[in-house]
Amino acid sequence: MYRSFQGLLLLGLCVFLASKAANGQLTWYINSRFIPLTFFGIVFLAVLAQVIFAEIKRSRQHDNEEEHDHDHEHDHAPAPINLWFMLVPLLIGVLIPARPLDSSAFATKGFNTNSPLVSADSSAQIFETDSEERNVLDWLKLFNYEDDTSQFVGQEASVIGFVYFDETLSENQFFVSRFVVSCCSADGFAVAMPAEWTGAATLEQDSWVLVKGSIKSVTLNGRDVPMVVAESVQAVPVPNQPYLYP
Asked: Would you place residue 123 in the very low, low, confident or very high pLDDT band (cuts 50, 70, 90)?
């Protein structure tokens, strides 16, 4: 029974991870660079489960001949509670609906309107990128590193993120937010770029939007940050990769 439970647990983990890979939800949990390693893990779990089931089959075939040895193994079998502890992550993954991090995580993680994840090299690379191809993190990196932010004022921006309303902003303003993930969602932190739009009151918290407009510089918490003066705000589905990577 113990070995059967082991095999079923490994097979369950394999099927769970394979289903997340099939529906594209793996990137809701981990950085995309770990996807190949996860595929290897799926295959490895399947092989281990097959080995255990083959071992159980052989044991049953020789049960009469090795009855004494089986009794000895049964007496010294590991405590089943070990497997129950391993079952907890699988139950959490199955029972809790999958969704990317949103503003509900702000209460514990907070959010940033500037980015410390910047270097001279990365800033230079982003500077050469077309302004409408920069994401929220790119704009915050530029304003965090460059001393003269006036050079970005008036540039066209096109950013995607989820809506977050904060009391520090006025009635027609909101934050376009994204989570930045280095390894997995557990280490994710939110970055937010303010936007100004006359129809802000019609937006829903956590709804994903594409904001197009021009950049202006505003001061928040004593720092210059980019704000999008929106010409249009369009509802969009959750991106296949909802997280940004530093």
From this structure: low
